[in-house]
Design a protein that fits this description.
303 residues; alpha+beta; two-stranded antiparallel sheet; 11 strands; 9 helices
């Protein structure tokens, strides 16, 4: 039983919906909201996702050698070096980094950023923000290595669409990009296209601006994407807002609230990535088994 709880910290929200939180929308939809915290819109609900993701990842790692590593790539305006450079200028070094970054490196710092100097700046940014009773957002980058080829479905269930659906379902997430993402829009097609070269096991990409997915289907290259998380809505600073009855007032929330959710989101991003890949792998396996069964049916019909 959790005895380290402080429901009274949320008493002010009985009168005021928190700005940019789910208090008002849940009342509009259901006629009721959680009395303490965000209820189903709180990151507390992701405990089940992380548990399921751990099971999925164990299978993927054991059977297919799939590796999933996520890390904090930015906090506020403090960014890892690859985000500071013009896309394409350091692409080979960034791809090499994504191929070798490990969870041990990520977990060596509490900010969960694998660049030590950048991690120090991120930590100070979070400390300063907390001292000011404010909050700050950031991004999590994730790479999935050794993904089986052929995962993803045409049209509405493309692999990047399923990943985007999963990542944007995480509380506080606000944006998703895969491969070159938004920065790829600044490139010419002649530069952005990934030429094919002969690899050990067939054709591979000389570059990987596509992020391991082409036509919505995995091509065997590293899949990498980035998820943006907003500043937490619950802050200690007094905010001029409006009560449920429409009266202007001041809301200053008490209690323990994260000034930045990004370091905590790393495990959730990894878990959701594992669930998506596992789901798509099961779909692909079922297709292959049905195809094999159909071939046997055709043989019997000819006999």
């Amino acid at each position: 039983m959790n005895e380290d709880q402080r429901q009274h910290d949320y008493s002010e929200t009985d009168s005021y919906p928190r700005p940019s939180h789910s208090d008002l929308t849940y009342i509009l939809k259901y006629g009721i909201k959680s009395s303490s915290g965000g209820g189903r819109s709180s990151a507390r609900e992701t405990i089940g996702r992380v548990a399921a993701g751990a099971i999925a990842e164990t299978y993927l790692s054991t059977v297919h050698n799939v590796e999933i590593v996520a890390f904090v790539s930015s906090v506020g305006n403090i960014r890892m070096s690859f985000l500071e450079n013009t896309i394409g200028s350091t692409e080979s070094s960034y791809m090499d980094f994504l191929s070798h970054v490990t969870r041990k490196q990520v977990d060596s710092d509490e900010c969960r950023c694998p660049e030590a100097e950048v991690a120090k700046k991120m930590k100070q940014k979070i400390i300063d923000t907390k001292s000011a009773k404010d909050s700050i957002g950031g991004t999590v980058t994730c790479v999935i290595r050794n993904v089986p080829k052929g995962l993803g479905e045409p049209c509405f269930d493309k692999l990047e669409a399923k990943l985007a659906h999963a990542m944007l379902s995480i509380p506080a997430s606000k944006a998703f990009e895969v491969g070159s993402g938004f920065r790829g829009t600044e490139m010419l097609g002649s530069v952005h296209n990934d030429p094919f070269i002969q690899g050990k096991n067939g054709l591979v990409s000389a570059t990987n601006f596509s992020g391991g997915i082409q036509g919505g289907i995995s091509n065997g290259e590293n899949i990498y994407f980035r998820v943006a998380f907003k500043p937490p809505a619950t802050i200690g600073l007094p905010q001029v807002t409006c009560s449920y009855t429409g009266v202007e007032g001041i809301l200053a929330v008490r209690g323990r609230h994260d000034p930045c959710v990004v370091p905590r989101a790393v495990s959730i991003v990894e878990a959701m990535a594992a669930i998506v890949i596992m789901d798509q792998l099961l779909i692909q396996n079922s297709r292959q088994q049905c195809s094999a069964a159909l071939a046997n049916v055709k043989k019997k019909l000819k006999q």
